[in-house]
Design goal:
This protein is of the alpha+beta class. The chain folds into two domains: about 170 residues, Beta-Lactamase, CATH 3.30.450; about 220 residues, Heat Shock Protein 90. Helix content is about 55%, strand content about 15%. The protein has ten helices and twelve strands. Strands 2-1-5-4-3 form a five-stranded antiparallel β-sheet. A five-stranded mixed β-sheet has the order 7-9-10-12-11, with helices on one face.
Length: about 450
């Protein structure tokens, strides 16, 4: 696609040339009309001056002498140093009532018969030359006075006027086009500067553009570019968070699968082997579901929780998750207790989100629980919310650290932690329209509660 400057200049120059052509045609027409009017008036005036001379009260012999003097003088009207080339293109003739030529110029055209129609006319002589003529019929003296002018006199004058008018316009238009080119370049300089700035940035630069001063026409473009850069940064950040979340989330299921595989190896009876194998298959299925959940949670922003709703048995959902986690907790010498009051059936946004949130809460509790400790999971209902709580017997948290626990990659007291568990739970809670609270228990340990709104 051509540049903006070239397109604009092409449009402007095209309009200028079109306007110049229209004006030139108008000048040509107007010049032809005005020159024709002036020259026609001169023809009529010359005819009447000649009529006045011919009416002089002279005797018949004196009139003949006058005619001879006229013809002798007019015969000398040839282009000389003291004359003009146009003299031979102007002519007049006078006829007597009998059709005899009394007076004529040497350049006068020849007629087979004298013209008879008074007034202006266009005449073609025997030499095929075109004349503009005026015939004055002097009825008092019986004379017919013809004054003519060759058309090429007028055409040459019009041509000179057009040339003297057109060429300055053409040269002026070219000069104006050059100035317009420079003016457009100056006007588009901020756009060129923005383009140069963008070209100079390296491919990984996602910082917002800060071009100042900036014309008001380019401010929306800069704002749109900055929004796009922010969106790219957000997408890249979400991709990085997804990788970190995936690594974090897969750690516990893989540990559970290892426990099931170890139990399978150590099984002493066929029944124990079958049970261990069943647990292993169920763990593999759960890990597969978790992978799918992680793909969903890659878009885990408050506005990106899947909007599809389904009515579920929340208590049953929690129990299924706990069944999968129990072998792993037992391998860590921890006891799991589930307390449900009342039976909870609710309409929630995403079952997978509930499963991931509970998995993270229990993993955190397990990481901070002492050996042979008890992890208690409670599902209660109060104040329009379901409260899914996970209690441990660990050291709890200090007030100064509580707010930061929801930050991504912030891990306190767990060198093996990625600092993502509570951040993921908080994001899920926000997406479900609920919240997460962390409270130290009076008897020791931490209670983490996921509050889910009751919607039906």
């Amino acid at each position: 696609m051509t540049s903006i400057r070239r397109r604009t200049l092409t449009l402007i120059i095209g309009l200028m040339l079109a306007g110049l052509a229209v004006l030139s045609l108008f000048n040509l027409h107007d010049s032809n009309h005005e020159i024709a009017e002036v020259y026609d008036a001169q023809l009529a005036q010359n005819a009447r001056l000649l009529q006045g001379v011919m009416r002089m009260p002279l005797a018949g012999k004196d009139h003949a002498d006058l005619y001879r003097a006229f013809n002798s003088t007019l015969a000398e009207a040839v282009p000389r140093g003291d004359g003009h080339p146009y003299e031979r293109k102007l002519a007049f003739q006078v006829w007597s009532p009998q059709g005899e030529v009394l007076v004529h110029t040497a350049s006068a055209p020849s007629f087979t018969t004298p013209p008879t129609q008074p007034g202006f006319s266009d005449v073609v002589d025997l030499n095929k030359r075109h004349w503009r003529a005026f015939l004055l019929d002097d009825k008092q003296n019986g004379l017919r006075i013809w004054v003519g002018e060759r058309d090429d006199v007028r055409a040459d004058l019009v041509d000179r006027i057009v040339r003297h008018t057109l060429w300055p316009n053409v040269i002026g238009s070219l000069m104006l086009a050059a100035m317009v080119w420079l003016a457009i370049g100056w006007g588009l300089k901020p756009l060129a500067d923005m383009a140069a700035t963008l070209r100079a940035r390296h491919s990984g630069a996602l910082e917002p553009l800060q071009l100042t001063p900036l014309p008001s026409e380019l401010e929306p473009m800069q704002a749109a570019l900055n929004r796009m850069l922010a969106q790219i940064q957000e997408l890249l950040g979400r991709e990085r968070r997804f990788i970190a979340d995936a690594a974090h989330e897969m750690r516990t299921p893989l540990a559970v699968l290892r426990v099931h595989a170890q139990n399978l190896l150590e099984a002493g009876t066929e029944q124990e082997r079958r049970e261990s194998l069943a647990f292993l298959i169920a763990g593999v299925d759960r890990t597969s579901r978790l992978v799918n959940q992680l793909l969903t949670m890659a878009r885990l922003e408050p506005q990106a929780i899947a909007p599809a709703r389904q009515r579920i048995d929340l208590g049953e959902t929690v129990r299924n998750s706990l069944v999968q986690l129990t072998p792993w907790l037992l391998s860590k010498h921890l006891e799991l207790v589930f307390d449900e009051r009342p039976h909870a059936t609710s309409t929630v946004t995403d079952v997978a989100a509930i499963d991931i949130a509970l998995n993270n809460l229990i993993t955190n509790a397990a990481n901070f629980s002492p050996e042979h400790g008890v992890i208690t999971v409670q599902l209660t209902e109060a104040d329009g919310f379901y409260h899914l709580s996970v209690e441990d017997q660990g050291p709890g948290i200090e007030e100064v650290d509580r707010a930061r626990l929801f930050e991504r990659f912030y891990s306190r007291g767990n060198p093996e932690g990625a600092g993502l568990g509570l951040a993921i739970v908080n994001t899920i809670a926000t997406g479900l329209g609920g919240r997460v609270t962390l409270v130290n228990r009076p008897e020791g340990g931490l209670r983490a509660t996921l509050q889910i709104p009751i919607t039906g």
